[in-house]
Write a structure and sequence with these properties.
The protein is mostly helical. The protein has a two-stranded antiparallel sheet. Strand 1 and strand 2 form a beta hairpin.
Length: about 120
């Protein structure tokens, strides 16, 4: 297998791996439709201390607070997701999602470009 073909295969494999095993799980777990798919919110992984205490107190009463419900109740025009989750966890998830998407798209673009170049120029 030629050098460029090997790189194309590597880029395609990296793209698939990053998309299916990094970006999609992060998207599924940390992106919340609030209130619908046109208005999405990225949640963090650590609740603010007062919110955690509130959720724990409500759990003792039998109430379950989902991320979507937390956003609906605590996030408004003056507060963003950092009112519910710690800023570091929200910003880290934003960066992870952005990097996951960016690298997936980059390696996918490289593999498509290499495929087109190999197909029409008969390189390698």
């Amino acid at each position: 297998m030629g050098g460029i073909k090997r790189r194309m295969l590597l880029a395609a494999c990296l793209s698939g791996f990053l998309f299916f095993f990094v970006y999609l799980p992060l998207f599924a777990f940390f992106v919340v439709d609030a209130p619908d798919a046109e208005h999405r919110s990225i949640r963090g992984f650590t609740l603010q201390k007062p919110i955690q205490e509130f959720v724990d107190a409500e759990a003792k009463k039998g109430e379950i607070w989902t991320p979507k419900r937390l956003i609906a109740y605590f996030v408004d025009a003056t507060n963003d997701e950092t009112a519910v989750w710690t800023p570091a966890s929200v910003y880290l998830m934003r960066a992870a999602l952005l990097l996951g998407w960016g690298f997936s798209f980059f390696f996918y673009s490289v593999s498509v470009s290499a495929f087109v170049a190999l197909r029409y120029r008969r390189i390698g």
